[in-house]
Amino acid sequence: MTDTNLSRHEFTAQEVAYRGAHEAPAGMVPDLNVISGAPAPGAEMKAERNRPAIIKLGKALRGIFDHLIGTSSLVPNDPVLDVRDFAWTQLLRDNWRAIRDEAMAVALVGQAAPSLATISPDHRSIAEVNKWRSFFLYGYGYAIEENLARCPRTAAVVEQVPGLNSAFFSILAPGTHIPDHRGVTKGLITCHLGLIVPTDGDVRMRVKDRIVRWAEGETLVFDDTYRHEVWNDSESTRVVLLIQFERPLRQPGKWFADFFMGFVRRSAFVQEARDNINAWNAAVKQLDG
To answer: CA 40, 42, 48 angle in degrees (round to 5)?
Structure first.
């Protein structure tokens, strides 16, 4: 684990080393997509018609479900929420340096964090290959045990998040733009903990009509069912710990949210990504000998 009191110079040097690891000459780094069987960058995404009909039905009903969930919410339905409404976020802020150190020691090294477009075909329309990387700890309730074991301090913290659904290190390369999109369900709320936030440019997110920016060691809570987009207009890598958790609800919204999430967890959207993460980790382990 690295020293928690890194100077800005030392911190930047490690970021440069990370970027260099992903810019190796062709042929120097084996193609993990071929080894793992995960979707190759640039390959044609699985057509929507190949998804089960129930997925299309779910998308058609999502608006109705979101309305029912929203009217049962025990917290505001605003695009950006007050962190004081979620007392447990203090735990993230109190441990941010330890979490950052594990991200740098594990997720930012070599090929540990694959492109989200490689792991999840459904994200290819917004996640340019090698621009948005992710190191998953939890995905829709499924624990990635191997990754959790490599980040014990982070694992101990995120396991205390009430209603934890997903947790991963979200890594944006310099110059990345994630276009306008929305989340899966209003039954989930998203929290970002700033770990590495470049200061040599403008790194920001628009949520509906709000522009927000990250700060290292601070949390940002928002409803990702509002249209949102992200820019890293800098020459450095941005890293946050992204957590999705269950929205506090009364009935009948809680029933609808649980029903819809059960449907999502069983879908190809989640199951393919889960299989690809495991295949990626197996391929990396094979390369590391």
So the answer is: 90
Of 79, 271, 265, 288, nearest to 182 (Cα)? Answer: 79
Quote the percentage of the chain above a pLDDT of 70. Answer: 76
Residues 94, 114: Cα–Cα separation, whole Å: 28
Q: DSSP string covering 215-265, please?
A: -TT-EEEE-TTS-EEEEEESSS-EEEEEEEEEPPB-TTHHHHHHHHHHHHH
Q: Report the alpha-carbon distance of residue 197 to residue 113 in Å, rounded.
A: 18
Residue 112, sorted as left (phi over 0), alpha (psi -120 to 50) or beta, turns out to be: alpha
For residue range 204-236, list pLDDT tens digits in order: 999 999 999 999 999 999 999 999 999 999 999
d(CA 22, CA 236): 13
Q: What is the dihedral of CA 18, 218, 175, 150, to 10 degrees?
A: 30
| pTM, full prediction | 0.81
